[in-house]
Specification:
single chain, alpha/beta, 7-stranded mixed beta sheet
Length: about 475
């Protein structure tokens, strides 16, 4: 029986999950879990790449210690962030976080070089202030010497795969999030690279999920205590999550629910119309060269931030610790408080940039209510009711936009990821959209990572067959309007 390992790293935590197929069902076992923290380097908020690499190796050792060494593995992370490496494979840039402020004042300058209407028609990628293309413009302005020293551009999972195997390869699904890849050719867009002043040599051939990278380097073999074949999953975590959605038909809306909420559908071709650009829908590359047509919604980040703020929580030495003697709020506590405040009328636009990285999420929500002339939350319950209703309203609005832009009627919303466990939000979503909600599986992203590896190894012969196995293997909760 072959064993597969998914290293799934999100914006707040990561996990090593083993998977295998037994009697036609997919089995999962979590081996290792770790925090993902940021640090300030050179005045910028950066991901702690050294700590993440240490955790990747620690998780491999945990597999060996359990006597569960995988035959195959792959890594997925969030999108848009990257590093540059030189000809010797040394990192010559920091892994600056998308939540950093370096692109905040860049839009006017970027618009002169890369008009968004032109960029969207070519790439189909929505405007976000932290899109990779804008991060690269900010880097070129602040540290041109890093671009000059670089030989390769690598998204974060590309970099970790390089550390595992010694191969510098760019994976397709994550590369499409950069707004540097043509939605029409499926390759780097030379005209965009030229307009942005980016050297073409940095960008290697795009490899699709299922590509076999090779085996561990000798150094990694010594550290881990075993050897393994590395296979590219959809390295963009949403691409993996969408692969794992056990949709019942072709008219299902997919929602990957975590720190971000990614709501959309799968299409065979990109939609790059002016109306789609105005609605800020994105066309990200998916498994099998399909397109994930979706909208980014702020998601559980708002709830996570409020919980930490109310509880006086902070991270110390990689662990969540209390910084005062106030009450510690759990997610069930916040849900109960929200339910008690049902009827509180205020809603905010969860996609407002003010919620991206505020000093105080609670104050940001209250200010948005005050500025729009609505009732300002005065209790924790009212605050949480406002956030929950705002998320459900964003989901409803996105589904309506999907109907208009695609001309299709949708039959259900299929939620995967950690957020599918929030029964209260599921009920509000079903009520707001008028569609049944099918919630599960929880480990959607890691499961999709494993499925890409399994498909490459012939465990399943098509995504449809793999998704049928997901339906057999995991409990899917149904919530009706």
């Amino acid at each position: 029986m072959r064993t597969y390992l998914a290293v799934d790293i999100g914006a707040s935590s990561g996990r090593h999950i083993l998977g295998w197929v037994e009697d036609g069902r997919i089995r999962l076992e979590e081996v290792y879990r770790f925090p993902n923290l940021q640090k300030v380097v050179g005045g910028h908020d950066c991901w702690d790449i050294e700590a993440l690499w240490g955790h990747i190796l620690a998780g491999l050792k945990a597999c060996r210690e359990r006597g569960r060494t995988p035959d195959f593995m792959g890594i997925d992370t969030w999108a848009v962030d990257f590093v540059l490496v030189d000809g010797a494979g040394r990192r010559v840039s920091n892994a600056v976080s998308y939540r950093d402020a370096r692109t905040d004042a860049l839009r006017a300058e970027a618009e002169k070089l890369l008009p968004f209407a032109w960029l969207y028609e070519r790439t189909g990628i929505q405007y976000q202030p932290f899109n990779t293309i804008y991060q690269l413009l900010a880097l070129r302005r602040e540290h041109p010497e890093q671009l000059e020293a670089a030989e390769r551009f690598l998204m974060l999972p590309d970099y970790f795969h390089y550390l595992l195997t010694g191969r510098t390869e760019n994976e397709y699904t994550n590369a499409t999030s950069t707004a540097l890849v043509s939605a029409h050719t499926g390759d780097w867009d030379g005209e965009i690279l030229s307009a942005a002043g980016l050297p073409r040599k940095l960008f290697g051939p795009l490899r699709t999920p299922g590509t076999v990278l090779g085996r561990f380097t000798e150094e990694v073999q010594r550290e881990a205590g075993f050897d393994c074949t590395v296979i590219l999953p959809a390295t963009h975590d949403t691409g993996s999550a969408f692969l794992a959605v056990p949709a019942r038909d072709e008219n299902a809306v997919y929602l990957s629910s975590g720190t971000w909420s990614l709501l959309g559908v799968e299409n065979g071709a990109p939609i790059t119309s002016a109306a789609s650009a105005a609605a800020n829908f994105t066309n990200e590359g998916g498994y099998g060269r399909r397109f994930r047509y979706l909208k980014n919604i702020m998601g559980l980040w708002m709830i996570q931030s409020i919980r930490r703020e109310l509880s006086g929580l902070c991270y110390v030495a990689g662990r969540e610790e209390r910084s005062d003697t106030g009450r510690e709020w759990t997610f069930p506590d916040l849900i109960a408080a929200a339910a008690e405040a049902e009827g509180f009328p205020s809603v905010v636009n969860a996609n407002d940039e003010r919620f991206l990285a505020p000093v105080s999420m609670a104050e940001a929500v209250k200010s948005a209510c005050a500025e729009s002339g609505q009732s300002v939350p005065g209790t924790v319950g009212e605050l949480m009711q406002c956030v929950y209703r705002s998320l459900a309203e964003c989901y409803r609005s996105a589904v309506e936009e999907l109907r208009t832009l695609t001309g299709r009627a949708y039959t259900s919303i299929n939620i995967v990821g950690g957020g599918c466990q929030d029964g209260y939000l599921n009920r509000l979503t079903a009520r707001a959209t008028g569609l049944p909600v099918l919630a599960g599986p929880v480990e959607g992203t890691a499961l999709g990572n494993l499925m890409a590896q399994m498909l490459a190894c012939g465990e399943f012969h098509s995504p449809a067959e793999a998704r049928a196995a997901v339906r057999r293997s995991f409990t899917i909760k149904e919530v009706y309007p």
